[in-house]
Write a structure and sequence with these properties.
By secondary structure, the chain is α+β, with helices and mostly antiparallel strands. It has a single domain, classed as Gcn5-related N-acetyltransferase (GNAT) (Aminopeptidase, 3-Layer(aba) Sandwich), CATH 3.40.630.30. The chain is about 25% helix and about 35% strand. It contains three helices and seven strands. The longest helix is centred in the first third of the chain and has 18 residues. It is globular, with a radius of gyration of 14 Å. The two termini are about 25 Å apart.
């Protein structure tokens, strides 16, 4: 998987379409969650795109401190269902955290993690804090990586 990082204005129409399609396939259809994915936050984010050939198979978005949480944050972590067996979730997260280290050195990273993925994020160095809460009907926990 090749990874590229782009600001919103640098995305091609083809890339943006594939990103939105992937997010919809997983977060709306697969997780059976009706919510507004296109949230007017993509314009502020850095987009981390995992490609196999010209297909988007993994994705995250990064927010600078203050744009989502007080800390740097990562959101919309997603891997296409047929690609999960290849460890692409870990690969896209490592690439995302490396991009954060480059752009925001020594800054904590905060996420809102789906509760069933706590172990995955813990293995990447995140620690849960606070109580579990529902976000779009799905249990979540806040997590921090210092």
């Amino acid at each position: 998987m090749q990874v590229s990082i782009k600001a919103f204005d640098e995305l091609t129409i083809h890339e943006l379409y594939q990103i939105l399609r992937l997010r919809s396939e997983v977060f709306v259809v697969e997780q059976d969650c009706v919510y507004q994915d296109v949230d007017n936050k993509d314009q502020k984010a850095l987009h981390v795109i995992g490609l196999k050939g010209d297909e988007v198979v993994a994705y995250t978005r990064i927010f600078k401190p203050g744009d989502y949480f007080d800390n740097v944050s990562i959101g919309r972590v997603v891997v296409r269902q047929d690609q999960r067996k290849y460890g692409l979730g870990k690969k896209i997260m490592l690439a995302t955290m490396a991009a954060i280290d480059q752009r925001f050195p020594n800054k904590p990273i905060e996420i809102s993690a789906q509760s069933y993925l706590l172990r995955f994020y813990t293995e990447l160095g995140f620690s849960a804090f606070g109580e579990e809460y529902l976000e779009d009907g799905i249990p979540h926990r806040r997590m921090l990586k210092k």
